[in-house]
Amino acid sequence: MSERVLVKTLISKSREELKNSTPQMIDSSILVKGWVRSLRKSKKLSFIMLNDGSTQQSIQVVVEDSIHQYDQISSMITGFCISVRGLLKESQGQGQSVEILAKEITILGGVTAEYPLQKKSTSLEFLREIAHLRPRTNTFGAVFRVRHAICFATHKFFNDHGFFYIHPPITTGSDCEGAGQMFRVTTLNVADPTTLPMINTDTDKNKVDFSKDFYGKETHLTVSGQLEAECMCLGLGSVYSFGPTFRAENSNTPRHLSEFWMIEPEMAFYDLDDTATLAANYIKYLIGYVLDNCDNELKFLEEREDGDKELRERLKSLRYADFKRITYTDAMKILEDAQKNSGADFEFKPFWGCDLQTEHERYLTEKHFAGPVIVTDYPKDIKAFYMKQNDDGKTVRAMDVLVPGVGEIIGGSQREDDYNKLLARIHDMKLEEKDYWWYLDLRKFGSAPHSGFGLGLERAVMYITGISNIRDVIPFPRYSKNAEF
Ligand code: 4AD
Ligand code: MG
How far apart are CA 288 and CA 334, in angstroms? Predict the structure, then answer.
């Protein structure tokens, strides 16, 4: 075990705690390792701000000219990686409670003049091009520590509510959302089409024979683990999955990725109202957890040049807020009314039956409700095949949670638990019945009312950090024409 101490341990404790700790820390010899954020140099004394990633703050290292190789050490620039052995001292200066008086500094990794992070401020767009280095910046340190907190809080929330963590497959033979935006998984050699096994019969001409492919059928990367989660919940009660999902949609927007992470709870015996309540409580729990555990990160994100100055205030008021609920039909009335009477000038004119566009979501969450809103009971024609049909024959028991700034953060529904209705819908939507035989079986044997939803992790991170582009809340974003790193 290394005796290295995390900067977090030193900074998060007060002087008093450090004085009274065993082993006593103040004035004791400490080893820290990290990266130089800045260096202020004078003839006799230099000050290094050292960050080891464990926390938002850097620790000040005071270097006297008596130290071995002072000249070399005091000429380091931003980005150097060093190991510091020294005495932990109460700081005389402002802005920090403790600092380290260096006794020995070893350079672990130097930096050449081309190091792109030397400039004080760099745009998020620029940092996207050097995503391999951006974890060393304050902004990305903050974002990824908050992202971690959200993941941890997710497991805690569901565990504390009696949910079991399950793992649906990543490779699948069925299309959950039926939107046909899937990435193919194959071992056939597409690089050399002459090697592809072909079917050429009287009825089928020039078709690739996927029975010769690795799995003996067509397979894709999953767009959602929901269908498998449904199987699991109809045995275990309440389950949740948390995994990567893949969508080959060509939407070049600040809210879409082609590889993102989704948290999908699925509950037997829950109806749509129970599910909407769970969704709101879950989001509020995440917000509360981040407020309680990431204050320094949130403060930093607020103070960024284009940061959301009301971030913490907004999160605090959301923590105990009511999430308004409204049916799609009523939401449409609000939008149509806004278009007619309140001067809202939507590019896409709202009408019953249309999918909610970003501008509509923004109007509802930012102008009309000024907060999150849960929209329920969408027209069946704009939703997936598995949603429970309402008696009106037109709508389904769907819900989307919309929030200001981000739009849709959760999509969910009560599932159709009636065998005949589900089968009819599969036929209506021209899906292959044979692909869903096991899913239909669930409705043949001990079917139960059940519901669930999916929260897009990156959308949640955007919402809670106030970062406005989804590409800045995942380490290595994947989207159309971009799979760098
Ligand atoms: O609304 P979606 O498509 O719902 C489902 O996939 C359901 N099967 C979930 C369920 O009921 N178990 O996606 C759920 C959420 C969205 O609300 C959004 O937050 C996120 O996943 N999402 C995306 N995030 C980033 N990039 C994309 N391309 C996304 N597509 C959906
Ligand atoms: Mg959706």
Answer: 31
A 10 A CB-CB count for 91 gives 16
User: How far is the centre of ligand 1, averaged over its atoms, from the C-alpha of 352 (Å)?
Assistant: 22
Same domain, 57 and 147: no
Q: Atom 21 in ligand 1: which residue has the minimum CA distance?
A: 456
Please tell me the number of the ligand nearest to residue 275's CA: 1
Q: Which residue lies with its CA nearest to atom 20 of ligand 1? A: 456
CB 186 within 8 A of CB 230: no
- Eight-class DSSP state of 471: G
What ligand has the least distance to the C-alpha of 177?
1
Does residue 127 form part of some domain? no
The encoded tokens of residue 310 equal 């009301």
Give the structural domain span for 466.
136-182+223-472
Q: Which residues are 263's β-sheet partners?
A: 242, 455
Instruction: Specify whether the CB–CB gap between 88 and 59 falls below 8 A.
Output: no
Burial class (CB in 10 A: 0-12, 13-18, 19+), 123: exposed
Asked whether residue 128 is assigned to any structural domain, the reply reads no
Neighbours of 69 (CB within 10 A): 11
The partner residues of 83 in beta bridges, in order of sequence, read: 33, 106
Q: CB within 6 Å of ligand 1 — which residues?
A: 176-177, 224, 226, 247, 249, 256-257, 260, 262, 264, 408-413, 452-454, 456, 458-459
Bond prior to 23 in cis (omega within 30° of 0): yes
Answer yes or no: do 43 and 92 share one domain: yes
Q: What are phi and psi for residue 483, nearest 5 degrees?
A: -135, 40
Q: What are the start-end ranges of the E strands in 42-196?
A: 45-51, 59-64, 81-90, 98-109, 164-166, 171-172, 184-185
Domain-located, residue 240: yes
| CA atoms of 383 and 122, how far apart (whole Å) | 41
| Cβ neighbours of residue 225 closer than 8 Å, sequence gap 6 or more | 168, 169, 176, 241, 243, 245, 262, 264
Instruction: For residue 412, give the ligand 1 atom closest to its CA.
Output: 11
Distance 6 CA to ligand 2 centre (A): 41
Q: Flag residues of the chain having pLDDT under 50.
A: 1
Centroid of ligand 1 to alpha carbon of 360 (angstroms): 18
Looking up residue 42, the CATH number of its domain turns out to be 2.40.50.140
Task: Look at residue 122 and tell me if it is in a domain.
Answer: no
Separation of 412 CA from ligand 2 center, angstroms?
7
Which mutation among 249, 262, 274, 402 tests ligand 1's pocket best, with the greatest number of atoms within 8 A of CB?
Answer: 262
**C-alpha torsion sign, points 349, 350, 355, 361:** positive
Q: How many domains does the chain have?
A: 2
Residue with tokens 């292959």: 432
CA of 410 to the centre of ligand 1 (A): 7
**Ligand 1 pocket: which of 150, 231, 259, 260 to mutate (most atoms within 8 A of CB):** 260
